[in-house]
Amino acid sequence: MTTVGIVGAGIAGLHLGLALRAADVDLTLYADRPPEDLAAAPLLNTVAHHHPLLERERALGVHHWPAAQFGYGAHHHWIGGARFAGRFTHPSCAVDHRLYLPRLAGDLEARGGRIEVRDVGPRDLGALAGRHDLLVIATGRGALSGLFPRRPEHSPHDAPRRLLCAGLYAGIAPAEPAAVTIGVAPGQGELLEIPMMSRHGPVTALLFENVPGGDLAVLNELSPAQDPALFRKTVLDKLREHHPATAERVLDDFALTHPSDLLQGAVTPAVREDFLPLGEDRFALALGDAHVVVDPVMGQGANIASYSAGVVAAGIAADTVYDELFCRRVARSREEVLLGASAWTNLMLDPPPWLDELWRGLAADPRRADTFTDGFDHPDRQWRLLATRRRVRAFLSG
């Protein structure tokens, strides 16, 4: 019987494990901490799950937060001086991963997947490879950070392009209709306002994407645990100055829901090699953040991780030999979507001047604004629309 080892218990590892159990593949998932401990952990992310990911949840039987009840169906954009709304064909949904991941870990164990809590470092990979036909590395953190070499032709940045300050807040009147608001403060960064389900019930996630050295970078220097009043005042001041579309809906009881409901940090976008030989014709396959890391500004990270997990699961189920040929076939199968998401996100982090034509065109054409918004479901299609000035003009001219 085929046996697979998965290192990492994030969405990539769990979706892969659930898909493999549906195909009756034996697996062990190696987690660096018990999944139930996540409930008391600091905020992990503010990710939104788009329709293709929700469809995979339905297929796996883990769609515990139905988008019809908990989701939203549109984006409000404030970009380049243009204001426009775009509607999704199918709704998206955002759930705090401190609720989401432990629930899916329970589903995996109930279906026969083993979860082993242990720290895994580079020196452990050879021994683990001897226990499994294929080893999948689904975490890019800790001792395994940078395990797979960067692909420089797809990794233009060697440092973070934004400082991230993400938190869960009460006291913001929801947008009408329910939607994510994406605002751009020229030269300062972006703000994503996301309706999210949390342990507190429905809340608003604010993800500040701040340009290093800019006026908003101060948000990454303040601690709500040390001085909650100063943190609240600074957030309010910066909203009013740089992100009025959200500030105009702030209520008197505006506050961070809890000091642990904040994430401050940064990521360096990178595309890494798909696999690594471990000797004796055994391989480690990269998945999730171990493979492709994107800045969260376009909300693609969890979505492409889940997509990639589905491709890997299908490849494992369709083969019996997990050698270099297998790894290269998997790489080709998932490349267009993953590289499209990475390239599109990097374009938005360093927008060329001609993108202003796009924003003006979308503000003038609601139908194309809907197409652009639906592109969040399909990053490969979005990249084909936006990759060059010529493509943008072709999209707008129809």
TrEMBL record:
Transmembrane segments: none annotated. InterPro entries: FAD/NAD-bd_sf, StyA_sbd. Pfam families: Smoa_sbd. Gene3D superfamilies: 3.30.9.40, 6.10.250.650, FAD/NAD(P)-binding domain. It comes from the Bacteria. Residues 140-249 form the Styrene monooxygenase StyA putative substrate binding domain. This is 2-polyprenyl-6-methoxyphenol hydroxylase-like FAD-dependent oxidoreductase. It comes from Amycolatopsis endophytica.
